[in-house]
Every structure is written in C-alpha cells, then in structure tokens.
Amino acid sequence: MPAAAPTPERPALTVDGLHVTVGHGRTEAVHDVSFTVRAGEAVGLVGESGSGKTLTCRSVLGLLAPGTAVSAGRIDLGGTDLTGLDERAWQRVRGLRLGAVFQDPGSYLNPSLTVGRQLAEPLRARHRLSRREARRRAVDLFASVGLHDPETVHDRYPHELSGGMLQRVLVAIAVSDDPELLVADEATTALDTVVQAEVLDLLDRLRTERGLALLLVTHDLAVAAHVTDRLLVLYAGEIVEDGPTAEVLAAPTHPYTEALLTVASLGDRHRRDLAVIPGRPPEPGTAGPGCRFAPRCTYATDACTGAPVALTPVPGRSSHTVRCLRTAELALQGALPPDRTEVPA
Ligand SMILES: Nc1ncnc2c1ncn2[C@@H]1O[C@H](COP(=O)(O)OP(=O)(O)O)[C@@H](O)[C@H]1O
Ligand SMILES: [Mg+2]
User: Fold this and answer.
1) Alpha carbon distance 284, 270 (integer Å)
2) Residues whose CB falls within 8 Å of the CB of residue 179, separated by 6 or more in sequence, listed in order
3) Which ligand is nearest to the CA of 233?
C-alpha cells in the first residue's frame, strides 16, 4: 500500500474515536481518543501510569497484547486505514512506514546477534540488498543517530553496548526505512539525565531533518516541554486536555493538568514524575458517568459527576480543547492560573 504524500490537509496520523478493551473485551481502558499528528510535528501523550498511553501507542503500531483489542475507532496513517489489517499487512506497515522505540531497548534486541545484523538483515530482506550494501546502509544509519565509530558498533553484541547506545541502535532500526511516524513510548525514561537529553535531541533532529511525525509518550512533563509541539493529557483512558504544549504548560485549563504541573514543580528537579496527586484514578471500567477526575478534583461540584463531560474548545484559544465544565468559571475566579512562569525546564 503506497504512502500518500502528507499534505497540510492530511495529517501523517489520524486517530479517530479510538476505544481499546482489556481482559478479552470485558473492560474498556481507552475511551474515545481522537488526535492527529502532522508530518514534522511532535505530539506528546502525558498522564499518570495506567492512563492508557501505552495502549494508545500499541493500537497505532498494531502491537496490542493478547486479550487487548481496538473495539472501535479509526486509525489512519497517511491515507491508509490501519484498523482491520491482517498480521502480514501490519508487518509490512511496521517495517516500512512506522518506527517504534520503547523504554527498555535491551529487551527488543536479540542477545545472540550483533546489532549490525539486527539492522541489516531486515533491510536486506525488504530491499533485496547484497550483504555488503546492507552493511553499508547499517553503518550509515548508525552514524546518523550519533553512534561514534559505527563500523565497530555494527559488530558488537547488545550486551557490549551501554543503555544510551542501545537506544540509539533502536532509533536507527526504527528510522531505517524513513517511516512517516515514529512512536516513542517512555523511550528515555530508563536513561540517565545526560543521555536522556541526547536521545531526545536526536529524536528532535530526526523529526526536523526527515519531516518525521513523532508521537512521544512520557510521564515527565519536562521531557514533553523539551520536544513536543502539542500535548494530549490523558486521564483514566480519556483525553482531558489537548493544546499547544507551551500554552498547556503555561496556562492549563483542566484541573488535572494543573495538578500535574503543581506536582511537577514541587520537590527537587530530578524527581518530576507525575505521581502523588492525592487519590487514585479509577480502574478501567469503574468510572462513574461524569468527569473521571471529579473524585480527586478540588473544584468538583455535583454537576461534574452526573453526566459525561465533552471535550470543548477553550474560550479565546484556537486549537485547544478541554473536558471540564468549570474551566471558564475557574479561570475567571483565578483558580486556574491565567499564566504560569514556572514551567518545568
Ligand atoms: N494486557 C493488559 N491486560 C489487562 N489490563 C491491561 C493490559 N494492558 C493495559 N491494561 C490496563 O489498561 C490501563 C492502561 O494501561 P497502559 O496503556 O499501559 O497505561 P500507561 O501506559 O498510561 O501507563 C491500565 O489500567 C492497565 O492496567
Ligand atoms: Mg505505558
């Protein structure tokens, strides 16, 4: 299936009304999630652990675990509808048009093969290259992701490389066929701060140079602030806020986003995790009919819990939506910050 050239009108990725169930269809863990990622754009998916970030990514990649499934919605990659592809078609799309990087690079590599072979062999198979040509391409790719001495790296086994180098190897594999979309799920979480910044800069460079669309999952708002253009804030499987990153971080309009930012700006700069908002999100399938955040929300009223709350445009801001009945009122009262100078750096 050929990739239609992305145009300003046609995003690289469109996710429309995605629902994902777990427990063999028994419970819904992702509810009506819609968003787009344009070519050259980086979209961040943030939210506490268990909010549905990974399920959303794995749906886009066709890599959901057994027992979990897309139960409704459409996923469109550059004009190709990915929902309903069979496994062979998925493999082809993943090989040629999608790239993925996950948290633990070591577990995605075969310990008994050199990293060079793990990049070169699939290239050889897909493009009928000679062994020599494939090696050449692999070495070039390793150089392009900032691995020094790529000839030597090519012949190393995974256990001979550091975590940061392994993550660069995975990025090289992910971009080896110039994908339209790169999905990075907590790709830098396990790395130390310096290496994390280097890998983020690499993703950012690939996005600019290759016009890659980037979907970046993180629980670290500082990471999101560093590389993303737009932010999707997920709570209990639902998008609660969607807007330009700088705007969302400077002036959040959902009480949950505000709480995340407050937590992130507390404490020392090396522990900016999203944890520790009092209370816990509802387990999948146990949320009431109204706002899913209401039981933990300082601003909740009876109106918040009675009926579903829709995502609606934030007054006065273009391309920014929020799922909160009280946004306008709270902003008028100054409860939600009109502007925030201290965004996590
Ligand atoms: N394979 C699975 N089986 C059962 N429940 C799952 C499975 N995968 C995810 N879930 C549940 O779905 C919810 C969302 O999970 P996930 O997308 O992994 O969250 P996140 O990546 O935001 O931490 C969680 O409550 C999680 O327990
Ligand atoms: Mg996850």
Assistant:
1) 30
2) 96, 97, 98, 99, 212
3) 1
134 C-alpha vs ligand 2 centroid, how far in Å?
A: 33
What domains can you pick out in the chain, each with its CATH number? 10-97+179-345 (3.40.50.300), 110-176 (no CATH)
Residues with CB under 6 A from ligand 1: 22-23, 29, 47, 49-55, 65, 67-68, 284
Report the nearest-CA residue for atom 7 of ligand 1.
Answer: 22
- Angle (CA) 185-89-104 rounded to 5° is 20
pLDDT at 270: 44
Q: Give the position, in ligand 1's atom list, of the atom nearest the Cα of 186.
A: 21
Ligand of minimum distance to the alpha carbon of 46: 1
Q: Please give the model's pTM, rounded to 2 decimal places.
A: 0.91
Residue 42 CB partners (closer than 8 Å, separation 6+) = 203, 204, 207, 213, 214, 216, 227, 228, 229, 230
Q: Flag whether pLDDT at 266 surpasses 70.
A: no
Beta bridge partner(s), residue 322: 241, 312
For ligand 1, atom 2, the nearest C-alpha belongs to: 22
**Stretch 115-129: mean pLDDT, rounded?**
93
Atom 24 in ligand 1: which residue has the minimum CA distance? Answer: 50
Q: Which of these, 290, 291, 296, lies nearest to 277 by C-alpha position?
A: 296
Query: What number is the average pLDDT over the span 160-188?
Result: 94
Q: For residue range 188-198, list pLDDT tens digits in order.
A: 888 888 888 88
Half-sphere exposure (Cβ direction) of 39: Cα atoms closer than 13 Å: 19
Q: pLDDT tens digits for 85-115?
A: 999 999 999 989 999 999 888 888 999 999 9
- First vs last C-alpha separation in the chain: 42
Ligand 1 binding pocket mutation candidate from 20, 22, 256 (most atoms within 8 A of CB): 22
> What pLDDT is recorded for position 51?
94
